[in-house]
């Protein structure tokens, strides 16, 4: 198996058929089919189901496609880094709820004061950010508990509460517990659906009405605004509701507290720039990595 075979396979999947991929790759179809067959034989499993109009990934094919994309991206990054070795680049991953951290004055001033520093920002879920870290696609990632920390080390911010946001006629400072919203439809992040539901059922003895689940806090905020419903979001995400007619109240349910973490690969030494960037948040109660 080599990087060229991974490119061939990715192109077949992206184009939908072997014939279209052959045109894209400027090669004849039979050699491309032979390369795919050779790859499947080497891996000992089928990667594609060949249909009349398009190919379909098998379960093994989906995994291999993801890994091929990562390897090709790493190859491209390596070539880019070698060509631009004199330039400094900091690659950061961030979840939607943590994105306001990158808007703070300390970060803005740091970027302005270092015009030769190139910043690359990838956004995704905590799981995707960790995958990007382990694939060497990013240098550090801003993620949120809970997560599997087996192959990473992380600085932890202080735990923070969830926040209920919604129309001003519903949100009240005295309604600062989840149970206060048991009679309302809720909008929650998919990651916290089970946490919220289990806590509500097992501790508060009610089954919450989860109307909408989303993978992005900005989506939750949007639907809260449009539908005039209650959304549950982490406190760090509060700046995202600016200029919206929404009110917010911190929930005192400690079972729902989470913590922002700055993660990096466990066995790698991060760059000086990455260390400087992490120190920008040193005044926010960061705990040593573990």
UniProtKB/TrEMBL annotation:
<dbReference type="GO" id="GO:0003677">
    <property type="term" value="F:DNA binding"/>
</dbReference>
<feature type="domain" description="HTH lysR-type">
    <location>
        <begin position="1"/>
        <end position="58"/>
    </location>
</feature>
<dbReference type="Pfam" id="PF00126">
    <property type="entry name" value="HTH_1"/>
</dbReference>
<comment type="similarity">
    <text>Belongs to the LysR transcriptional regulatory family.</text>
</comment>
<dbReference type="InterPro" id="IPR036390">
    <property type="entry name" value="WH_DNA-bd_sf"/>
</dbReference>
<dbReference type="GO" id="GO:0003700">
    <property type="term" value="F:DNA-binding transcription factor activity"/>
</dbReference>
<dbReference type="GO" id="GO:0032993">
    <property type="term" value="C:protein-DNA complex"/>
</dbReference>
<dbReference type="InterPro" id="IPR036388">
    <property type="entry name" value="WH-like_DNA-bd_sf"/>
</dbReference>
<keyword id="KW-0805">Transcription regulation</keyword>
<keyword id="KW-0238">DNA-binding</keyword>
<dbReference type="InterPro" id="IPR005119">
    <property type="entry name" value="LysR_subst-bd"/>
</dbReference>
<protein>
    <submittedName>
        <fullName>DNA-binding transcriptional regulator, LysR family</fullName>
    </submittedName>
</protein>
<dbReference type="InterPro" id="IPR000847">
    <property type="entry name" value="LysR_HTH_N"/>
</dbReference>
<dbReference type="Pfam" id="PF03466">
    <property type="entry name" value="LysR_substrate"/>
</dbReference>
<keyword id="KW-0804">Transcription</keyword>
């Amino acid at each position: 198996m080599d990087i060229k075979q991974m490119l061939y396979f990715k192109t077949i999947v992206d184009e939908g058929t072997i014939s279209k991929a052959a045109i894209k790759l400027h090669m004849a179809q039979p050699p491309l089919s032979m390369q795919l067959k050779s790859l499947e034989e080497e891996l000992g499993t089928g990667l594609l189901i060949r249909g009349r109009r398009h190919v379909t990934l098998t379960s093994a094919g989906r995994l291999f496609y993801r890994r091929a994309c990562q390897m090709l991206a790493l190859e491209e990054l390596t070539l880019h880094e070698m060509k631009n070795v004199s330039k400094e680049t900091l690659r950061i991953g961030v979840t939607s709820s943590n994105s306001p951290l990158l808007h703070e004055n300390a970060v803005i001033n740091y970027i302005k004061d270092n015009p030769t520093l190139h910043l690359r920002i990838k956004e995704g879920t905590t799981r995707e950010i960790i995958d990007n870290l382990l694939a060497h696609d990013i240098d550090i990632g801003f993620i949120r508990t809970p997560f599997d920390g087996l192959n990473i080390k992380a600085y932890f911010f202080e735990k923070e509460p969830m926040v209920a946001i919604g129309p001003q006629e519903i949100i009240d400072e005295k309604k600062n517990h989840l149970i206060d919203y048991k009679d309302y439809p809720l909008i929650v992040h998919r990651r916290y659906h089970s946490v919220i539901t289990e806590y509500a059922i097992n501790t508060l003895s009610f089954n919450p009405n989860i109307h909408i689940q989303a993978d992005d806090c900005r989506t939750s905020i949007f639907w809260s605004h449009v539908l005039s419903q209650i959304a549950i979001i982490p406190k760090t995400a509060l700046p995202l509701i600016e200029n919206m007619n929404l009110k917010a109240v911190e929930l005192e349910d400690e079972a729902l507290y989470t913590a922002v973490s700055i993660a990096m690969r466990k066995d790698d030494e991060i760059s000086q720039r990455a260390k400087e960037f992490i120190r920008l948040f040193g005044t926010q109660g960061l705990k040593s990595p573990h």
